[in-house]
Amino acid sequence: MQSFFSATSSARPGLWTIAGQLSRAQYIGFAALGLVVPLVLWALLSASGWVDPVFLPGPLQVVRRLVEWAIEDDLAHDTLISVGRVVGGFVLSAVIALPLGLLIGAFRPVEALLEPLTDFIRYMPAVAFIPLVMLWLGIGESAKVAIIWIGTFFQMVLMVAENVRLVPRAQIEAAQTMGATRGEIIRLVLLQSAKPAILDTLRITMGWAWTYLVVAELVAANSGLGYSILKAQRFLKTDIIFAGIVLIGVIGLVIDQAFRWLHRRAFAYLHGGS
């Protein structure tokens, strides 16, 4: 009897089971802990006096600066400008990368033709293209969107192609057996099977788009979060630098959670739903 109960208890999934599950409350608790602990450590370090506040302002000082920025310096405008630039570059990347990645993943000749070139360009730092972008597009909004596009497009193409290549071969062969045309296989088999992975790819590359924001706003910008961070660096206003970084992180977290929500809604069967 004792061995039966011990076997039953050992078989019951625990909190730290590999590839286990968490309840909604447990997930929120761990997520809150992961956000609060670094914040507390930051507050303690800044209050300890070990680091000059010029170099490490405290969280309350950063929040006060953020409020002043919102009231006095048109934070909403800077935020909207930066969001527009990031979304513009990201959408432009997605519109071109999704069909191109689908073709690369579906057809070996297209893969051989385009993947080596894409691999070659994706290792080039986006910041190195700034002089060429300014020469070709000037210093307007199109140049800033182009920098974000360069930083995300080539990675996105290769990731989408890999998502398509991971579709099980058996699904393709089953469709061919039933007489599906090439177009039907691409549209009804490859695309449908790769959709969940492609949405994850879009979520990841949206994060990369935000990392290229400051680089994009090097191009003769006079507004935006990245521009404000760069301007604050010149005058050693580290509280503004921290405020801008934290705000970008919050916006990114909201967007990331929106992508995760969309994934759960669109592909409920992958998350234990019906």
Describe the structure in brief:
With 274 residues, the protein is mostly helical. The chain has a single domain (57-271), classed as MetI-like (MetI-like fold), CATH 1.10.3720.10.
List the helices and strands and how they pair.
Layout: H1 2-11, H2 24-47, H3 59-72, H4 75-106, H5 108-122, H6 130-137, H7 141-165, H8 169-177, H9 182-211, H10 213-216, H11 225-234, H12 238-266
Helix pairs in contact: 3-12, 4-5, 4-7, 4-9, 5-7, 6-7, 7-9, 9-12, 11-12
Structural key phrases:
274 residues; mainly alpha; MetI-like fold
Tell me what you see in this structure.
This protein is mainly α and 274 residues long. It has a single domain, classed as MetI-like (MetI-like fold), CATH 1.10.3720. It is 77% helix and 0% strand. It has twelve helices and no strands. It has helices at 2-11, 24-47, 59-72, 75-106, 108-122, 130-137, 141-165, 169-177, 182-211, 213-216, 225-234, 238-266. α3 (59-72) crosses α12 (238-266). The longest helix is centred in the first third of the chain and has 32 residues, at 75-106. The two termini are 38 Å apart.
